[in-house]
Amino acid sequence: MSNYENLLYEAKDGVAFVTLNRPSALNALNTAVLEELADVFGRVAAAGDVGAAILTGAGKAFVAGADIAQMSALDVAAGRDMTVRGQYVMEFIENLDKPVIAAVNGFALGGGCELAMACDVRFASDKAKFGQPEVNLGIIPGFGGTQRLPRLVGKGMAKYLILGAEMIDAQEALRIGLVEKVFPAEELLAEAEKFARLILSKAPIGVKMAKKAINTGLNLDLRSGVAYEAEAYVNAFASQDKAEGMAAFLAKRPAVFRNK
């Protein structure tokens, strides 16, 4: 296991485990944490033996928000630098060519909710809480929350949560589509790992191209999106994994994929 100052990293049989590790501060995001997140996901991206990642928090929080003690001392220029830095980290995670699963173990508020939304799939503990409370502090979500939340739950619900600074539980998050699954707290990491390993059993080129097509298409009109999908399809179709996957299907045997 490799330790950073504010997080833990471990790669195990193809799955990277990233744990935010500031439990005394409820894993609040500050500039140092953002820098370490950028570094660790760069490491995940470069690791040839890693095909998926799980992001979670230590203690009773996933991430309880940004570090208000640090933010309160920032001037306007420094505040701009922090939001740009945070947006960069979220976009890097979102566009990583490997799936990232958020295992939301507790509070995911403000920047924590934004961090979870940057992941590909969100699994939540039944003890998790979600919210964007920034208007209580005289600011707005600054790490992509005003953009990703309506894309996940719809414009009206996003305004309800952001303008009212509502905090919701895991079951409500599931109902509105903010998370995909809810599990008992003691089962959360095992279920996240199970899903990560399910992904690892699939063709890597297919997983990579499908994620990229989904993310890219959401920012395009339908005609442009399906045109992009066609190009991604051709990239996968030309791969060794396509030949192996179809041959294995026809031979009724397990596929042995190699493309990364």
Number of domains: 2
How many strands in all? 11
Give the percentage of residues in beta strands. Answer: 15-25%
What average pLDDT do the residues reach?
A: 95
Strand order of the largest sheet: 1-2-3-4-6-8-11
What is the CATH superfamily label of the largest domain?
2-enoyl-CoA Hydratase, Chain A, domain 1
Written as H for each helix and E for each strand, in order along the chain, the element string is EEEHEEHHEEHEEHHEHEHHHH
Secondary-structure-derived class: alpha/beta
- Per CATH, the class of the largest domain reads Alpha Beta
Shape: globular
Give a quick account of the main beta sheet: strands, pairing sense, barrel closure: 7 strands, mixed
In angstroms, what separates the terminal alpha carbons? 24 Å
Could you estimate the helical fraction of the residues in percent?
40-55%
Q: Tally the helices.
A: 11
CATH architectural type of the largest domain: Alpha-Beta Complex
- Give the CATH topology of the largest domain: 2-enoyl-CoA Hydratase, Chain A, domain 1
